UniProtKB/TrEMBL annotation:
PANTHER family in UniProt: DIHYDROANTICAPSIN 7-DEHYDROGENASE
Organism: Nonomuraea jabiensis
Name under which the protein is recorded: NAD(P)-dependent dehydrogenase (Short-subunit alcohol dehydrogenase family)
Domain of life: Bacteria
Keyword annotations: Oxidoreductase
Family: Belongs to the short-chain dehydrogenases/reductases (SDR) family.
Length: 239
């Protein structure tokens, strides 16, 4: 089983790569940073039971993604975990440039990456998008994030029918403690994580490994398609 994880050099993508590689899959990871790629490959190589490789490529560069897949050959499963900054904030502070960048960094990157892989994707394989539980959130300042992630999730059922028998699913994480939060500073991050943990039924925030387990499920389960699986510690249950 050959799995490509676009955005697989850190956070949730790296955790998914580690889990699948430990389970014997051949894993290919991509990322935008040469340094992160080297670090990821070293980490994966220490625990992999199957071949592991990677390449620096920007998922927002459609031409580069097409060339990457053409050079790779047949792929059984594609997992797209790429995300981006921008888009968060109250309506009063949003700009056209920020909105455009938010859509380009995630929605456009996810869908065009899937498009680029179609020529080499095994018909019995799958595509898994990693979105975010903000798609269903009703919180101040997350309208753009909700719109971007919600758009990807809305595309899943239609793509599952359009691309059949290729399976198409999405995994939607809640608050996961990754470097995505690093820009708010250590103190603010710790306070936010503590508050989030107290508010969740499971009484902790998520770890990348929690999401990786769900990604592995939808990759390996050949009878699952057209669904969005939420992994949020019960966050959606809050009043």
């Amino acid at each position: 089983m050959r799995v490509v994880i676009v955005g697989g050099t850190s956070g949730i993508g790296l955790a998914a790569a580690a889990r699948l590689a430990a389970g014997g899959a051949e894993v290919v990871v991509t990322g935008r940073s040469e340094e992160r790629l080297r670090s990821a490959l070293k980490q994966l190589g220490d625990q992999a039971r199957g071949p592991v490789s990677g390449q620096v490529v920007d998922a927002r560069d459609t031409g580069a993604m097409r060339a990457f897949f053409e050079g790779l050959g047949t792929v059984d499963h594609l997992v797209v975990t790429v995300t981006g900054r921008g888009g968060a904030g109250p309506l009063s502070s949003l700009t056209a440039e920020g909105l455009t960048e938010a859509w380009r960094n995630k929605l456009v990157a996810h869908l065009l990456t899937a498009q680029a892989a179609l020529g080499v994707l095994n018909p019995e394989g799958s595509i898994t998008f990693v979105t975010a539980a903000s798609a269903g959130a009703a919180l101040p300042g997350v309208a753009t994030l909700a719109a971007v992630n919600g758009a990807i999730e809305a595309a899943v059922p239609g793509l599952a029918v359009e691309l059949a028998p290729i399976r198409v699913n999405a995994v939607s994480p809640g608050v996961i403690d990754t470097d995505w939060w690093s820009e708010i500073g250590d103190e603010a991050r710790a306070a936010f994580m503590e508050g989030a943990a107290e508010s969740l039924p499971v009484r902790r925030v998520g770890r990348p490994e929690d999401v990786a387990a769900t990604i592995e499920y939808v990759v390996r389960n050949a009878y699952t398609t057209g669904i969005v699986l939420t992994v949020d510690g019960g966050g959606r249950l809050k009043a």
